[in-house]
């Protein structure tokens, strides 16, 4: 049995007319009749009842149509997936990240992948966590770097690292020596992520402030962590940020105060669409987890 036998059979099963099926297949009617006869002889069952006026599927033919259709669809899916794997090595590879994690490490990741796959065209997108989840589910990005929680049956994820939170403030305007003094910030201006942009992160910051006995006076909002740091640096407010930023965002005007005592942490995840794990993704995840 060859693939053409299945395609000829399925076309005739749809058309139930030898002339129309032959036209669809761009062949003449006699070769189509021979191919169908060969298929029936190989299977050992009559698939069609035909006379001078009508062509109908037998019960065996109806069953075979369903199973042959599955085989063709599975083959098409495997072909598409194979093409995607190939394109990931010599085509486009899309990485989404949240602004609070774009670090030297990610730059090194790009260099690492470029060395392994010199023909790979890497696309980087800054995307909030909740939008990354939707994009991953739809297969629009190949690797997502985002913050938990991640609730989806269509995505596979691994924890990259766990991060605590830190208060960041301008040391020219505010003097803080320990977390015991944080309560006096209740009248200070706060700079936070927009709630619609990063709802879970925003709520975590509110929860931290509540643990220190006050509700923050949020005046300025930004959807980019670098903008938040610069606003704090210029004395326009204080903020609470992931502690990992203290390693890469160092300025003489600002200090960080770790808030691990709150018991609140945030997981940064490496996420991929389920069942679409490629060689490039394997290399990227292994590099980041190493």
Walk me through what this model shows:
By secondary structure, the protein is of the alpha/beta class. It has three domains: 79 residues, Arc Repressor Mutant, subunit A; 95 residues, D-Maltodextrin-Binding Protein, domain 2, CATH 3.40.190; 100 residues, 3-Layer(aba) Sandwich (D-Maltodextrin-Binding Protein, domain 2), CATH 3.40.190. The two termini are 48 Å apart. The protein contains ten helices and twelve strands. Helix 1 packs across helix 2. Helix 7 links the parallel strand 8 and strand 9. A five-stranded mixed sheet has the order 4-3-5-12-6, with helices on both faces. It is elongated, with a radius of gyration of 30 Å.
In short:
This protein has helices at residues 3-15, 18-25, 29-43, 59-90, 104-116, 129-137, 199-211, 225-233, 245-248, 279-289, and strands spanning 48-50, 55-57, 92-97, 121-126, 143-147, 155-163, 165-170, 189-193, 217-222, 239-242, 254-258, 266-273.
Number of strands: 12
What's the CATH topology label of the largest domain? Answer: D-Maltodextrin-Binding Protein, domain 2
CATH fourth-tier homologous superfamily of the largest domain = Periplasmic binding protein-like II
Which CATH architecture of the largest domain is right? 3-Layer(aba) Sandwich
Sketch the major β-sheet: 5 strands, mixed
Q: What's the CATH class of the largest domain, please?
A: Alpha Beta
User: Helicity level, as a percent range?
Assistant: 40-55%
Strand order of the largest sheet: 4-3-5-12-6
How many alpha or pi helices?
A: 10
Low-confidence stretches: none
Cα(first) to Cα(last) distance is 48 Å
* H and E string: HHHEEHEHEHEEEEHEHEHEEH
Rg, Å, rounded: 30 Å
Mean pLDDT: 90
Structural class: alpha/beta
The count of domains is: 3
3D shape: elongated
Strand content: 15-25%
């Amino acid at each position: 049995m060859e693939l053409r036998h299945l395609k000829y059979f399925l076309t005739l099963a749809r058309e139930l007319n030898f002339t129309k099926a032959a036209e669809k297949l761009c062949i003449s009617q006699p070769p189509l009749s021979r191919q169908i006869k060969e298929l029936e002889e190989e299977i050992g069952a009559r698939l069609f009842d035909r006379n001078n006026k009508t062509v109908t599927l037998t019960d065996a033919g109806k069953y075979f149509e369903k199973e042959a259709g599955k085989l063709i669809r599975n083959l098409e899916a495997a072909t598409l997936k194979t093409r995607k794997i190939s394109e990931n090595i010599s085509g486009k590879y899309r990485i989404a990240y949240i602004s609070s994690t774009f670090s030297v490490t990610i730059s090194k990741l790009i260099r690492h992948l470029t060395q392994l796959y010199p023909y790979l065209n890497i696309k980087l997108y800054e995307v909030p966590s909740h939008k990354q989840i939707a994009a991953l589910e739809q297969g629009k990005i190949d690797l997502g770097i985002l913050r938990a929680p991640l609730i989806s049956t269509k995505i596979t994820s691994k924890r990259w690292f766990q991060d605590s939170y830190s208060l960041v403030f301008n040391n020219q305007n505010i003097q803080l020596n320990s977390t015991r003094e944080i309560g006096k910030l209740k009248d200070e201006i706060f700079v936070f992520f927009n709630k619609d942009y990063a709802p879970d992160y925003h709520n975590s910051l509110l929860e931290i402030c509540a643990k220190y006995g006050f509700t923050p006076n949020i005046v300025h909002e930004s959807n980019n962590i670098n903008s938040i740091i610069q606003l704090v640096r210029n004395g326009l407010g204080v903020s609470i940020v992931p502690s990992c930023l203290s390693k890469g965002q160092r300025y003489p005007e600002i200090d960080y105060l770790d808030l691990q005592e709150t018991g609140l942490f945030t997981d940064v995840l490496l996420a991929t669409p389920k069942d679409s794990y490629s060689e490039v993704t394997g290399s990227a995840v292994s590099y980041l987890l190493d």
